[in-house]
Design goal:
Length: about 250
């Protein structure tokens, strides 16, 4: 169930608020909606233009489906051939067996993730610029909210999801995004989601904006009587730039 819904939610608990050191006066972002739209649009362009396919990195994955937990650590290297770019380093806290490595490699070969590095999230599809609304700010961070429309989820979800973001004013990038539901919604026939939180965290490394953590929390029912309660997150680390050494 989780994998079907996750494919719908990502084209791939935290909530964010201003810290205690908030301004009491209103900045130009608070009084000029065009200014905040322009600022976030520039941040989106910076993210989309980053050469994320030129980075090697590690990702630690965690899933909990109705109490059934699983973990893995994987490594991506753009210098390897397409079928060998992903390496399974650890599964459920132990070194993988040869069978587990082969199974992992087979799944990657048949997955689109073997053709790209799974880092590209279309933020411009997630953030509706025209609905951006100032929320609060501190000396370092700007907080804003926005309406969410993900075509994959249909019209029902669009009116029942709300997004918020944290913009780093000093480094000029979107540091975090979270999307949560304000009411139940149905992403597919027979499924009803009562509790939904999807988060994206980002980091700036050598001027490139790269993912830091993606997470999903979801509760609801499927086929009327079956309940689901799922948590998953991917944490990215050990980035090394490979642009100067990539094989032609």
């Amino acid at each position: 169930m989780k994998h079907k819904l996750w494919l719908l939610f990502v084209a791939t608990g935290w909530t964010f608020s201003a810290n205690a050191n908030e301004h009491t006066d209103l900045s130009h972002w608070a009084t000029d909606r065009v200014a905040i739209q322009t600022t976030i649009s520039q941040a989106l362009n910076r993210y989309q233009q980053a050469s994320r396919d030129k980075w090697a990195y590690q990702v630690s994955r965690y899933e909990n489906e109705e109490g059934d937990e699983s973990t893995s650590i994987e490594r991506f290297n753009p210098n390897s051939s397409i079928s060998e770019r992903w390496t399974l380093i650890e599964i459920n806290g132990a070194a993988p067996t040869e069978e587990e490595r082969e199974d992992f490699a087979a799944k990657r070969r048949t997955s689109k993730e073997s053709e790209d590095n799974n880092l590209v999230v279309s933020l411009s599809d997630i953030i509706s610029l025209e609905t951006l609304t100032y929320k609060s700010e501190s000396d370092e961070k700007l907080n804003a909210t926005f309406d969410v429309h993900l075509e994959q989820l249909g019209d029902d979800a669009s009116s029942k999801l709300k997004g918020s973001l944290v913009y780093n004013k000093n480094l000029k990038f979107i540091e975090a995004i979270d999307i949560k539901n304000i009411d139940k919604f149905s992403p597919m026939f027979g499924a009803s989601v009562s509790d939904f939180l999807m988060t994206f965290e980002f980091q700036a490394i050598n001027q490139a904006i790269l993912p830091k953590k993606n997470a999903l929390r979801m509760k609801g029912t499927y086929a009327l009587f079956s309940k689901f309660d799922e948590v998953s997150h991917d944490t990215f680390s050990n980035f090394t730039y490979q642009g100067d050494t990539l094989k032609k």
